[in-house]
Amino acid sequence: FAAPKAAIRFSGFETCSGLLTGPDGQDKYALGAAKGFVAGLGAGTMEAIFVTTPQETIKVRLINDALRTDGPPKYQSFSHGVRGIVSEFGLSGVYKGVLPTILKVSTAQATRFGVFQCIPAENRNTPLKAAFSGAFAGGVSVLLFQGIDVVKSRMQGLDANRYNNVFHCIREMLKNEGIYAFYKGVGPRMTRVCLEVGITMSLYGEIVRMLDMFWKTNP
To answer: Which of 104, 119, 148, 198 can pair with 135 through a Cys bridge, CB separation 3.0 to 4.6 Å?
Structure first.
């Protein structure tokens, strides 16, 4: 799922950036430094709707099923799990937790693109510099929105029926586990996101430069 996620994310970012840019390349709405954040917000929303929500729902349920202690796993393989989840829960079940997912992905991508573009151009004008800048932007997004990711995972897990809605899930977590529950798994996620964002931002810049050799990708 990494390829379609990245494709929708960056195409969405370019589309939103284009909508925010005038015909002569000017900042159409005078957003200034916020332009990257707004375009990232739109890109993250598109990514969440078309790829991340169904992917994350299936992934979380397969992981929870494999780790269940009340009996053998229900799903025998990835394909069997996808068929079983869609058959049992329907298409709406695959989109369980869509609102927290949109909130999580859109705010995360807004932060990553926004922070990345706020870094001075001379500090991201080579693949290595772009990778470090992307890793920094990714780390900031994890620290800010880890709690949303935890809530999303709870809403998409096999125990999702315990929660009536997002706000009920948040209240139950605070009541039963305390504030630290929202930062469970922050270390591994920080490592993964920093590497992922660093690599993708670095590759994206190089791909755009390569495409510019054949046609202009920016107005």
So the answer is: 198
CA-closest candidate to residue 200, choices 64, 15, 5, 6: 6
Contact (CB, 8 A) for 117 and 132: no
pLDDT at 1: 63
* DSSP letters spanning 85-116: HHHHHHHHHHTTTHHHHHHHHHHHHHHHHHHH
DSSP 25: S
Residues counted in the chain: 219
**Angstrom distances, CA of residue 197 to CA of 42, 113, 201:** 17, 10, 6
**Short-list 184, 35, 19, CA closest to 116:** 35
pTM of the model as a whole: 0.79
pLDDT of residue 61: 86
One-letter amino acid of 169:
C
Buried b (16+ CB within 10 A) or exposed e, 170-182: beebeeeeeeebb
Tokens of 82: 């996808």
pLDDT score at 207: 86
Q: Round to whole Å and give the CA distance between 130 and 152.
A: 30
Averaged pLDDT for residues 120-137: 95
